[in-house]
Amino acid sequence: MNILVINAGSSSLKYQLYNMKTEDVLAKGRVERIGMDSSILTHEVENQPEVREVSEILDHTTAIKKVLDMLTHRKFGVLRNIQDIQAVGHRVVHGGESFSESVLVDQNVKLEIRKLFDLAPLHNPAHMMGIVAVEANLPNVPQAVVFDTAFHQSMPPSSYLYAIPTVLYRKHQIRRYGFHGTSHDYVSKRAAEFLGRPLEKLKLISCHIGNGASCAAILHGKSYDTSMGMTPLEGLMMGTRSGDLDPAVVPFAINKEDLTLNEVNSMLNKHSGLLAISGISSDMREVVEAMNDGNDKAKLAFEMYAYRIRKYIGSYVAAMDGVDAILFTAGVGENSAPLREAVCRGLTFFGVHLDADRNAVRSSETRRITTDDSGVSVLVVPTNEELLIARDTYRLVKDKTAVESRF
């Protein structure tokens, strides 16, 4: 079965085509600047030169058509025709309390996703545009949606409720939802495979550290707590997001600086984090480089960033009454040896002993970076959210086909 995985943004679209028999990526690419007359489609097939095409792409329906044309292109394509695509899987950021697992798309599912627009106004509407665009181009092909929040629906009320009047939860569903669930789910399963132990018997702390970052306490295969909240702003210090802060900062800043709510929101989401403290960049590589050159602001930004990750790890060890392994994943987590070293340096009390040589190795494979006698394993686990989406889509379509074949 060939499955097309789509991640639609408001003006962009990423895609990967999988052969589920082998789980190989047949092709991948992205469409950027949707809505403009100079949109860019980039298409990649292994062992072939990258293809780049600039054209007018005014909406997502046209973008999907361009993708399908490229996948079936006589010279650059990998399929004979679009009938070779048996299913499409979508990433959807917010599933609210409506979805605790991946589902096949139908009218009710689309209605529920639309109801959640207010909880993820920058993401869910764009994901819906992707779903509708696929319907227009592949009307008879089943679609599935995989939610970033679904994995965290196993959290107990003591983890997901805020200590505010409960009427706000009952009326407006104000609570912790958590994000990066697809990634936390994938790396926890991969870690269990690597360790050769049942996931159901493990206590794991997953650190998805990229431009957006979150930690998750994963108890016996289920999310028990996570750092992001109702939105992706809460929790760790990130590239441009503030993470945790005193809520009173918002009205105080509004009053002192005569800011609007939109301006404060923009400040906390786009002008804070590493960028604000370093004064240089939201990119960890550039911050580390400046720190090594003696920049004090970059050093402070790096130390704050690592310290907050370490604090969350410590709190999750307490929450789960122990930990078997700590996982680093995503762009910064997988590639920044200095950050991993800085975080783990303060975890020796829990039995974490980093191996400097192992930590320095760059690899696309899952690997252990602690010593053989370390009481807690620390792993670097490359995430693969697209593969998990493809696997869930394959399972759902296969199950539906099996049910239909009985009647």
Give an overview in words.
- With 407 residues, this protein is of the alpha/beta class.
- It folds into 2 domains: 2-147, ATPase, nucleotide binding domain (Nucleotidyltransferase, domain 5, 2-Layer Sandwich), CATH 3.30.420; 198-385, ATPase, nucleotide binding domain (Nucleotidyltransferase, domain 5, 2-Layer Sandwich), CATH 3.30.420.
- The chain is 39% helix and 20% strand.
- It has 15 helices and 14 strands.
- The chain has helices spanning 60-71, 107-115, 124-137, 157-160, 166-172, 181-195, 249-257, 261-270, 273-278, 284-292, 296-320, 330-335, 337-344, 356-360, 385-404, and strands at 2-8, 12-19, 24-32, 36-44, 51-57, 87-92, 103-104, 143-147, 203-209, 213-219, 222-226, 325-329, 367-368, 377-380.
- Strands 5-4-3-2-1-6-8-7 form an 8-stranded mixed beta sheet, sandwiched between helices.
- Strand 1 and strand 2 form a beta hairpin.
- Helix 1 packs across helix 3, helix 10 (284-292) crosses helix 11 and helix 11 (296-320) packs across helix 13.
- The longest helix is centred in the last third of the chain and has 25 residues, at 296-320.
- The two termini are 22 Å apart.
- Mg(2+) binds at residues 7, 385.
- It is found in: Cytoplasm.
- Keywords: ATP-binding, Cytoplasm, Kinase, Magnesium, Metal-binding, Nucleotide-binding, Transferase.
